[in-house]
Amino acid sequence: MEERILIYLSDYKTEERYEYPPTLTQRAIADGAGIQQKHLSRHLKELMGQGLIEERAAKVEGMKQRMKVYVPTPQGFERARELRENFGKKVVTIELDGKRIEMMISQIDKATSRHLKLSDIVRHALESHILDLKALEEVEESRRRQEDEKERKVELYKEALETAWRSGILTPSERVLINALSEHIGMTAEECTRIEEEFMKGADFVSPDKRELYDELRAIAYSMGEPPKVAKEMLAALRKRMGIPEDTVC
């Protein structure tokens, strides 16, 4: 069971990040590795005891509270690589286009029209004497549709934010519309906050209030002629902090 968990976890990117995918939570690991959740903790503890995975309390996409996620350690990734090589050499019976043939697990992904995760192939191979490739493809297709739908929702929300912020400010009525959109497409408050924070970091607009304040301070500094060097440096630092392009300053 520990081997199946390690192969499953190695199918996903697990670098340090602000939010982790739900695929690394206990429920997803149990489903993906084909293990009853009531038995999962024991196998996870065994892997942690061997130094092959580590447990992190982190923010998870779409979840309100921090949750436990599990990621392979460098030793875990190395062990997973060995397991993938070993499993890849095993020969199984598959059903393809109504015919049953023998094939190495490492060749199965190339024989299908969809990219299949090794963890899915291994799970089905251990659960059935005959692998139905069509059923495997449907599993991956369903997962891909869910990912595409999530990406579509994120892009739609980003487009709405960009439109609403085009004037440089977000009015109360625009905020109501943005919130209504997020509820309609089923995005959580945490997802919306993360997207808005990323959007604001990359936004190329300057709030009219900020620009007006900067222009007033600059006018005061130059009102008595050429200001001293320290005043110019302070204005330059303020301009950068406010995100005002230098070529727009007269």
User: If strands are numbered along the chain, what order do they take across the biggest sheet?
Assistant: 1-2-3
Q: Note the quaternary state here.
A: single chain
Number of helices: 11
* CATH class wording of the largest domain: Mainly Alpha
Task: Output the radius of gyration.
Answer: 26 Å
CATH superfamily of the largest domain: Winged helix-like DNA-binding domain superfamily/Winged helix DNA-binding domain
| Tally of DSSP β-strands | 6
Straight-line distance between termini: 68 Å
Q: How helical, in percent, are the residues?
A: 55-70%
CATH topology name of the largest domain: Arc Repressor Mutant, subunit A
SSE pattern, N- to C-terminal: HEHHEEHEEHHEHHHHH
Mean pLDDT: 77
Label the overall shape: elongated
